[in-house]
Amino acid sequence: MRIAWSRPASSTSTRPARYWPEFAQAGKERIPVRWLLSHQAGLPAVRKLLPQDALYDWPVLCEALAAETPWWEPGTQHGYHALTYGHLVGEVFRRIEGRSVGSYFQAELARPLGLDFWIGTPASEHARCAEMIPAPAGAAGAEDVLEQFSNNASEMVRLTFNNPAGRRGHVNSPEWRTAEIPAGNGHGDARSLARLYGALATGGTLDGMHVLSREAITRASSEQAFGKDAVLGFPMRFGLGFMLRHDMLPLGPNNETFGHAGAGGSIAYADPVARIGFAYVMNQMQGGTTGAPRGFRLIGALYHALGR
């Protein structure tokens, strides 16, 4: 299928296909990088059923995504690329930079900033990882929500959350922890995430360590898409790589906040107005796909303590 484009494409220098030629298959040659970053590329799922171990095989998943036809005309709507996001953006990054996302993150951010956080956790650190605990049976918890997505009437939604199948049952396995799955298996603590977002909230530099320029932060946190999410079914607001604050994702009182919330209740974000980074993580899954009540209550308590 060829894609009929209704919007002007950006220059070839910002197209994934320039760096990842295989990505140009199925009419994707004109997709710009910014649509990958803002969940507008139409690639939240792979139609071809993949074996479970494909989750741990970077080339296999990237090959499948390169061959995939978009589920919608790219750039015309947005939908949460729950798992594929990390491979789409990560493969472009790898082709340009030469290192994987996990290797770069550890060398250039985690070690210099003193972060206890990994994307692709070495076996030497596995004993320190908390076991992920599913929500209690019958509770309105995250596992129930993800199960609903996996049984959704829409083929696209089902495959987004369940292809490769069975990954939720393996999040405590050595294979899961060791693999680099940038959209889903970062391992670390809240203090580290808050410190990283704190750098972004204070202009891109923290304790003499430069993370991003102010200009790059402004671009990354600028609204790219806002409205009903084609995958999640409720409104989402995206920047370039970040979820942005809105009424259904209340990341504090300031509209300029940006970060990410996830299934089970985890939340981390930067507030450049208050100049703070915030993070809440848990191993006991709670209700919600983009944050949960406990995390949002903690956010409220933080701003109350700050008198805001």
Concise synopsis of the structure shown:
This protein is 32% helix and 11% strand. It has 308 residues and is an alpha+beta fold.
What topology emerges from the helices and strands here?
Layout: H1 16-19, H2 33-37, H3 58-67, H4 84-97, H5 101-113, E1 117-119, H6 142-150, H7 155-162, H8 174-178, E2 186-188, H9 190-201, E3 205-206, E4 209-210, H10 214-220, E5 225-228, E6 235-238, E7 243-244, E8 258-261, E9 267-271, E10 276-280, H11 293-305
Antiparallel strand pairs: 1-2, 3-4, 5-6, 7-8, 8-9, 9-10
Helix pairs in contact: 3-4
Q: Using the coordinates shown, work out and report the CATH topology of one domain.
A: Beta-lactamase
**Which percent range describes the beta-strand content?**
5-15%
- What's the assembly state of these chains? single chain
What is the total tally of β strands? 10
Describe the structure.
With 308 residues, the protein is of the alpha+beta class. The chain has a domain at 190-305: DD-peptidase/beta-lactamase superfamily (Beta-lactamase), CATH 3.40.710.10. Helices cover 32% and strands 11% of the residues. It has eleven helices and ten strands. It has helices at residues 16-19, 33-37, 58-67, 84-97, 101-113, 142-150, 155-162, 174-178, 190-201, 214-220, 293-305; strands spanning 117-119, 186-188, 205-206, 209-210, 225-228, 235-238, 243-244, 258-261, 267-271, 276-280. A four-stranded antiparallel sheet has the order 7-8-9-10. A two-stranded antiparallel sheet has the order 1-2. A two-stranded antiparallel sheet has the order 3-4. Helix 3 (58-67) crosses helix 4 (84-97). The chain is globular, with a radius of gyration of 19 Å. It starts with 15 loop residues before the first helix and ends with a helix.
